[in-house]
Structure formats: structure tokens, C-alpha cells
């Protein structure tokens, strides 16, 4: 390592830099903290003063807004729909992407490289281009407005990135390890589940986080493909804002719940997320 590199690492590891990064992180959390405090205040208090007023008047904190939220059928149903959409879309992308990634990395079949190039090419296709054609197709086959239709759309657009990420990661597994397993009599499926999947844990975790966050926070696809019975939390909150602009006592706790769940998932698996992205991005 060069002298300049060592000097840069020493500076980045200094206490001043760490303190600066901590301050930046705290500023990044300010909107989340503000939304949490707002969700614990009454509409009258929110109209009278800012959320920071609670530090001098902690008696303003109350869980009445969350009680009203649980009594709001549109919001609770939309939370259930969000889970019904996000979990299957994430599981299917991880499962199919893992199998396809292994096939492109270690199985020989005609046109393997060309098929992989086609998958990589699908990464540049924007979601907006496919909205109208797929909406017409779903309308003809009876999937428009259903939860299953939204799941299919997210799976279709999530698979190219999943295959690309996992193929690059699986290709880094030592060939000698796979050959040793084959000599012991392991077939392709046994090799995949007993050797490749355990080694691919970081990449699979990072993919699951990517897919979960994308589907959970999606609003564009949900606006197009869902109706009042299948809409997720993002669309339900947007509808509440449009119809009842002053019902902040429902919107604030609903928005916080919608935001805190993906944040919790990300922070719970951030170590696997970082290691998986770094390993899958470099061949």
C-alpha cells in the first residue's frame, strides 16, 4: 500500500471523522424521529406547534393516534395487502433467482452466455415502459386489480437483477469445492442446496433486502395494478391525503409504520447486505 493510501486510512479512522459521520447519521434520522414524535401527538398539538415542542412538554405524548389507526379499516387492510404482496414477491425472486444464478454460473447448456446477456439487457428496461402493455394483458386474463397480478409484475422486474447479482456471486465459489462434492456423488440439486446456498448467504440476504425494500415502498406499480380491495399501504396513505387532507392523526402513525418496517429489516441485515453487494459486484 502506498504512503498516500496509508495516510488516507489513518485519517478516515480518526476520531474527528467518526464524530462527523455520527453527526451526519443523526441528521439523517431527524425526519424519522420527527415523524415518530408527530405520530404520538394529538392533532391539536401538531397544529399549535412543531414536533420538537414535546421535549419541553412530554405530556403531549399519547397513543390515541395509533388506536385510531387500528380502527381505520382502509389502513389496516392495506397493511395486510402490503405483506401479502411483499413477502411472496421477495421469496419468489430469491428462489428463482438463486436457481437461475447457479445455472448460469456452473451448468453447461446451449447458448448460456447469450441467455445471460439477454438477462443483463433486461436490467435497462424501465418499469414505466411495461405498465400499459402488462395492464392490458392482465385485464384480458383477469389479473388486473388483484394482489397476484402485482406480485407477478414485481417478480418479473426483480428477476433480472437477482440473476445478475447471484450469478456473479456463485461464480466466485471455488471450482475445486464443487468438483469434490460431485466426486462424493452429489447431484446438481444436492450440490445447490448443500454447498452453494450456504456459501451464498450474504448475496441472498442482500438480494432479499433489495427486493423487500423495492416492493414495500412501491407506489407506481400499486397505483396502476391495484384497486380499493388490493391496494398496499403506500396507495392507502396517498388516498387518505387526497380525501381527508386534515386527518394527520391517522396519516402520521400510518406513515411511520410504513417506514419503520423496511428500516428495521435493513438494519437487521445490513452486515449481510454490504458483504453480499461487494462480493456480487466484483468478479
Give a verbal description of the structure:
The protein is mainly alpha-helical. Helices cover 78% and strands 0% of the residues. The chain has helices at 3-12, 15-39, 43-48, 64-71, 73-106, 112-121, 127-141, 147-170, 175-183, 188-199, 201-217, 220-225, 233-243, 248-268, 270-281. Helix 5 packs parallel to helix 8 (147-170), helix 6 packs across helix 8 (147-170) and helix 13 (233-243) packs antiparallel against helix 14. The chain starts with a helix and ends with a helix. The relative contact order is 0.13. The model has no long low-confidence stretch (mean pLDDT 82).
Brief sketch in words of this structure:
With 283 residues, the protein is mostly helical. The protein is built from 15 helices and no strands. The two termini are 22 Å apart.
Amino acid at each position: 500500500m502506498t504512503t498516500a493510501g496509508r495516510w488516507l486510512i489513518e485519517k478516515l479512522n480518526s476520531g474527528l471523522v467518526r464524530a462527523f459521520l455520527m453527526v451526519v447519521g443523526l441528521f439523517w434520522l431527524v425526519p424519522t424521529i420527527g415523524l415518530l414524535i408527530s405520530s404520538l401527538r394529538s392533532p391539536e398539538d401538531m397544529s399549535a406547534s412543531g414536533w420538537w415542542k414535546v421535549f419541553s412538554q412530554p405530556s403531549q405524548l399519547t397513543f390515541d393516534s395509533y388506536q385510531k389507526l387500528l380502527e381505520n379499516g382502509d389502513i389496516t387492510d392495506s397493511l395486510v395487502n402490503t405483506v401479502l404482496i411483499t413477502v411472496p414477491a421477495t421469496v419468489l425472486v430469491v428462489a428463482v433467482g438463486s436457481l437461475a444464478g447457479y445455472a448460469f454460473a456452473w451448468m453447461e447448456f446451449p447458448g448460456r452466455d447469450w441467455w445471460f446477456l439477454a438477462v443483463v439487457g433486461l436490467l435497462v428496461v424501465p418499469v414505466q415502459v411495461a405498465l400499459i402493455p402488462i395492464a392490458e394483458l392482465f385485464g384480458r386474463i383477469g389479473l388486473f386489480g388483484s394482489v397476484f397480478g402485482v406480485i407477478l409484475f414485481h417478480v418479473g422486474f426483480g428477476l433480472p437483477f437477482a440473476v445478475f447479482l447471484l450469478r456473479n456471486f456463485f461464480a466466485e465459489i471455488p471450482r475445486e469445492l464443487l468438483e469434490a462434492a460431485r466426486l462424493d456423488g452429489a447431484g446438481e440439486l444436492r450440490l445447490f442446496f448443500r454447498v452453494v446456498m450456504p456459501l451464498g448467504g450474504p448475496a441472498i440476504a442482500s438480494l432479499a433486502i433489495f427486493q423487500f425494500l423495492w416492493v414495500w415502498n412501491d407506489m407506481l406499480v400499486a397505483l396502476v395494478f391495484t384497486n380499493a380491495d388490493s391496494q398496499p399501504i403506500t396507495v392507502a396513505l396517498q388516498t387518505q391525503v387526497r380525501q381527508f387532507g386534515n386527518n394527520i392523526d391517522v396519516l402520521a402513525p400510518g406513515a411511520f409504520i410504513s417506514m419503520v418496517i423496511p428500516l428495521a429489516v435493513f438494519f437487521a441485515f445490513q452486515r449481510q447486505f454490504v458483504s453480499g453487494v461487494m462480493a456480487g459486484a466484483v468478479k
